[in-house]
Inverse folding.
């Protein structure tokens, strides 16, 4: 935000285009009638590009938006062919999706999450140490990066799901359950996290320990493989629009936060505070070896996906993890390279 649960959040033109390019002539780009996009309501620059209509302008097509509550929902929708692009899917459900052969490509990333997704505990629950989680109810969206981190937290602290009741809830349901007093803690992202903190919650820091232990998480952009092959210009436009929004955040943070706050239903101050917790990776930086790498070369992030998939097998969340080459082939940065200029 199932993949970790149960999968629940024209050739002629292409051939002609390829032939024209081979002859050095510009080919007319195919334009889709509509692009089906799955997205999260989040306090991130993506909301700028959506709210200002930049995604639609740059893609030069009508957009059909579907809000999701976890990356597992994006996996389900792309597997069913009802979504073309997933914006903000986490690295954990992406690793699961590629492992299970869902027909999409990792085409870009939003951020290195770091502390932006974190455990939030109810102050009244008096949770001060890992042992204090025993007997408590902790909610998270299953099939998400937060779920992956929560499982990592339990494992690294020698806790099991027999010790802690782990509940599967979408972010909006987590906020509602918190207000009713039904849960003691939650692992989730903002704006839900911010709302919990404002309603008697406190951060229980886990990210430093988990990052060091290899539980690195990131938010990504994926495109259905057939759509990417048929409409490369539209995909490039989507990435360009995101790059434009990211530039606004970097150069005019107050203005960016105002737009994001309006789109996410929080104040500009909360939106800015939330965004400052993320490491938003510029498009050109994503093409470095440290992240996704240049087209056809791969990058270190492929290794993160492989390690994540291996962990998911260990947790019996997916049946098996493929070899590293699947994650290398599952990444296509050609549109990203065009968008980055």
């Amino acid at each position: 935000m199932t993949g970790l649960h149960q999968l629940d959040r024209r050739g002629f033109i292409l051939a002609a285009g390829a032939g024209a390019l081979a002859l050095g002539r510009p080919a007319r780009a195919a334009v889709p009638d509509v692009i089906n996009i799955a997205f999260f309501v989040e306090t991130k620059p993506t909301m700028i590009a959506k709210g200002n209509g930049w995604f639609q302008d740059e893609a030069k097509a009508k957009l059909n938006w579907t809000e999701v509550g976890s990356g597992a929902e994006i996996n389900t929708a792309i597997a069913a062919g009802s979504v073309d692009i997933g914006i903000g899917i986490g690295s954990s459900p992406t690793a699961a999706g590629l492992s299970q052969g869902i027909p999409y490509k990792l085409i870009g990333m939003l951020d290195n999450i770091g502390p932006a997704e974190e455990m939030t505990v109810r102050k009244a629950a008096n949770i001060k140490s890992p042992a204090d989680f025993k007997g408590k109810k902790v909610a998270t969206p299953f099939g998400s990066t937060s779920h992956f981190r929560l499982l990592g937290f339990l494992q690294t602290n020698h806790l099991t799901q027999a010790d802690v009741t782990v509940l599967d809830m979408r972010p909006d349901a987590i906020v509602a359950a918190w207000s009713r007093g039904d849960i003691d803690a939650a692992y989730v992202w903002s704006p839900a996290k911010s709302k919990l903190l404002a309603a008697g919650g406190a951060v229980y820091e886990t990210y430093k320990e988990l990052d060091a232990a290899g539980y690195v998480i990131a938010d990504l952009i994926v495109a259905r493989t057939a759509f990417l092959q048929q409409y490369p210009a539209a995909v490039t436009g989507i990435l360009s629009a995101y790059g434009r929004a990211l530039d606004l955040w970097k150069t005019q943070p107050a203005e960016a936060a105002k737009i994001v706050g309006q789109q996410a239903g929080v104040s500009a101050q909360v939106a800015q505070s939330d965004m400052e917790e993320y490491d938003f990776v510029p498009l050109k930086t994503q093409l470095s070896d440290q992240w996704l790498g240049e087209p056809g070369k791969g990058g270190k992030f492929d290794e993160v996906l492989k390690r994540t998939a291996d962990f998911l097998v260990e947790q019996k969340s997916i049946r098996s993890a493929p070899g590293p080459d699947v994650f290398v082939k599952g990444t296509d940065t050609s549109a990203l390279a065009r968008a980055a200029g």
